[in-house]
Specification:
Order of helices and strands: HEHEHEHHEHEEHEHE
CATH superfamily of the largest domain: Glycoside hydrolase/deacetylase
Shape: elongated
Strand content: 5-15%
Helix content: 40-55%
CATH topology of the largest domain: TIM Barrel
Number of strands: 8
Structural class: alpha/beta
Radius of gyration: 41 Å
Number of helices: 8
Distance between the termini: 154 Å
Length: 311
């Protein structure tokens, strides 16, 4: 009997020990889990803080880079403005002479583009930029959608001249008043783009045209004198590339490089349908550069290459 009691007591003690051990194990496991959770939270917090700090630094770097880029862009724009020559002296003024009836000895090509601005103006400007060549654009009002190209060309250092608004022979040569009314229209368009009305003009068909006689006898004789009295100067040409007709690029090139005058005033066209002129332009420029010519835009001292008046 006594032995049974001892055995029962031992079993109870053993059970109690197991319960205590299990309790200790549970507490240890719980402590480990809680510790692990706390460590994970702390690590996540550090990572988040580090990422936030990194993003802040990155954003600051981006902001600084953007500010620097903007500043550089502003500086470049200001530099371009400072580098661009002041050409307000090209404004029409009856008291300031323009043009020369004599060529000088400097080997110079004055490329002149009539009838723009057009779809092809940007392509022409890109080629001129590539060869660091300057030119003159005698513009019309035919393509209002491209009027902004007038300022684009001007800002690149090219000269802007007037070629009448409509380029309609029947209209512009109906009378002297009709001509100047049309000229004033394109003058206002150009003034809106570059800030003044330039003194450089080119008659539709040139001063030697005879088609004007179909509308008014003797009008070219009268206009050639009156435009100069009003402060303008008209510019003809001493070589044409032949793009007034439907000629391929190689013919235009060959025609354009067929002279060796000291001052070449080259007639070309900047119109929507003059892709062949764009195609021929690089070889024309390369030819004359290889012969030592420079390419300049018309200014007040440029040879005017006047034709003989035909009407």
């Amino acid at each position: 009997m006594e032995q049974k009691k001892r055995m029962s007591r031992r079993r109870r003690q053993a059970i109690r020990k197991r319960r205590i051990l299990i309790g200790v194990i549970v507490l240890v496991v719980a402590a480990v889990i809680v510790g692990a959770v706390l460590l994970l939270k702390q690590a996540k917090k550090k990572t988040t803080t580090k990422e936030a700090s990194s993003k802040t630094v990155q954003n600051l770097n981006i902001d600084n880079a953007e500010q620097q880029t903007k500043a550089e862009g502003t500086d470049n724009a200001d530099a371009k403005k400072e580098d661009a020559p002041d050409r307000s002296g090209f404004a029409v003024d009856p008291n300031v002479p323009a043009g020369s009836d004599k060529a000088n000895e400097e080997k110079t090509v004055y490329m002149t583009f009539d009838d723009g601005p057009s779809y092809n103006t940007q392509a022409v400007l890109d080629i001129l930029d590539k060869y660091d060549a300057k030119a003159t654009f005698f513009v019309t009002g035919i393509n209002p959608d491209y009027f902004d190209m007038i300022k684009t060309a001007y800002d690149k250092g090219h000269t802007i001249g007037l070629h009448t608004y409509s380029h309609d022979y029947a209209n512009v040569y109906a009378s002297q008043d009709a001509y100047f009314s049309d000229l004033d229209q394109i003058g206002q368009v150009v003034k809106d783009q570059i800030g003044y009305v330039p003194c450089f003009i080119r008659f539709p068909g040139g001063s030697s045209n005879t088609i004007s006689a179909n509308y008014t006898q003797g009008i070219m004789t009268a206009l050639s004198q009156e435009v100069q009295a009003r402060g303008y100067q008209y510019y003809d040409w001493n070589i044409s590339c032949g793009d007034g007709g439907d000629n391929p690029a190689d013919v235009l090139r060959d025609q354009a490089i067929s002279v060796d005058y000291s001052n070449i005033v080259l007639l070309m066209h900047d119109a929507n349908n003059k892709e062949t002129t764009v195609q021929a332009l690089p070889e024309i420029i390369e030819h004359y550069k290889n012969l030592g010519y420079q390419f300049k835009a018309i200014d007040r001292d440029t040879f005017d290459a006047h034709h003989g008046i035909g009407n």
